[in-house]
Amino acid sequence: MTKNWLFIGLAGIALIGCNSGGDQTQGVAATSGDKKLVVGFSQIGAESAWRTANTESIKGEAEKRGVELKFADAQQKQENQIKAIKGFIAQGVDVIAFAPVVETGWEPVLREAKAANIPVFVSDRRPDVPEDLYVTFIGADFIKEGEMAAEWAVKEMGGKATIAELTGTTGSAPANDRAKGFRNVIGKNPDMKIVFTQTGDFTRSKGKEVMEALLKSPQGKSVNLLYAHNDDMALGAIQAIEEAGKKPGVDIKIVSIDGVKGAFEAMVAGKLNCTVECNPLLGPFLFDAIEKHRKGETLPKRTVVPDSAFDMSQAAAELPNRKY
Questions:
Q1: What is the dihedral sign for C-alpha 156, 158, 161, 167?
Q2: Residues 242, 243, 246, 251: what is their CA dihedral angle, to the nearest 10 degrees?
Q3: Which of these ranges, 18-22, 107-111, 194-198, 305-309, has the smallest mean pLDDT?
Q4: Fewest CB atoms less than 10 Å from the CB: which of 117, 153, 159, 186?
Q5: Radius of gyration of the chain (CA)
Q6: Is pLDDT at 17 greater than 70 in this prediction?
Q7: Contact in structure between 209 and 178 (CB atoms under 8 Å)
Q8: pLDDT given for residue 307 in this prediction
Q9: Residues 6+ apart with CB under 8 A from 116
Q10: What pLDDT is attached to residue 34?
Q11: CATH code of 165's domain
């Protein structure tokens, strides 16, 4: 996996260096003298192991580079993120970065940032706003992740399955795109049928709660494949499946997304069948982009961090390499 991580790092750096011909030039001048660069970052929350690793990557990279990071945890509430961004504008930070909890509702506050000549960088999830309101988006291709999960499912199930889906936070980019990507592939296989879809809000506790209710229903008795939009919901569902007297990974095959250490442990134990990686270690990519922008370089509007899929057969060998 060391080679994979090296590839991801080099690919990310190369992509960030591409010139797309964009017109975002605000905030280019470097901070003068010995004054630290001040970056305000609004994080979604701490809803999963993935998010915790993402936060640690951003904080660690800021400290490594001597950046003053003003960090705000929104506790999964958009109103808290908007309040934090307004606070960063009032404080006159040099750069604003954020991972939007949902896709819509950001244009007014981002226009305030633009009026204040503060460049905005988007991490992990993209907002549905005009592209001139942010410098670049850095993150995964969520649609591709959903497609990779579905491709594994079709192959594993021989093109025939009764599927339950645990979706992420309603209205969020990963929930929307991972659902779309999965259906892009599943839709071509008429015997792969999604019979249940409900949000687990990207949390282990909600994933367990929703799966418990499903397994107690008549509908739940026919399900033989679970697609979870993240590993934490899948791990919660595994608990519910076991408590219902069934074998996760056997009676109900499970594919999820994120590639956290807990998912690999579950695969080694035979309880989860496949996870599609979504790299949370975005700190280096984010601060590389900020530095390049401040030097006057033009960045692409989207920098995609490539991901991979892992199944049970690869889990034991890969587990020691997990950094999150």
A1: positive
A2: -50
A3: 18-22
A4: 117
A5: 20
A6: no
A7: no
A8: 85
A9: 89, 92
A10: 64
A11: 3.40.50.2300
Distance between CA atoms of 160 and 270, rounded to whole angstroms? 21
Residue 10 in tokens: 């080099």
> Among the residues of 117-269, which ranges form H helices?
142-157, 173-186, 204-216, 231-243, 261-268
Instruction: Tell whether the torsion through CA atoms of 161, 164, 168 and 173 is positive or negative.
Output: positive
- Tokens 């950094």 correspond to 323
Burial class of residue 291 (count of CB atoms within 10 Å of its CB; 0-12, 13-18, 19+): middle
What tokens were used for 295? 């030097």
Domain enclosing residue 214, as ranges: 142-278
What is the arithmetic mean of pLDDT over 32-44?
86
pLDDT in tens, 193-239: 999 999 999 999 999 999 999 999 999 999 999 999 999 999 999 99
Q: Domain check: are 178 and 132 in the same one?
A: no
12 and 114 in a single domain? The answer is yes
Q: Which residue carries 């418990």 as its tokens? A: 212
Q: Strands 38-43 and 95-98, how do they pair?
A: parallel
pTM: 0.83
pLDDT, average across residues 309-320:
96
- Give the C-alpha distances (Å, rounded to integers) separating 131 from 23, 112, 225, 257: 10, 15, 38, 27
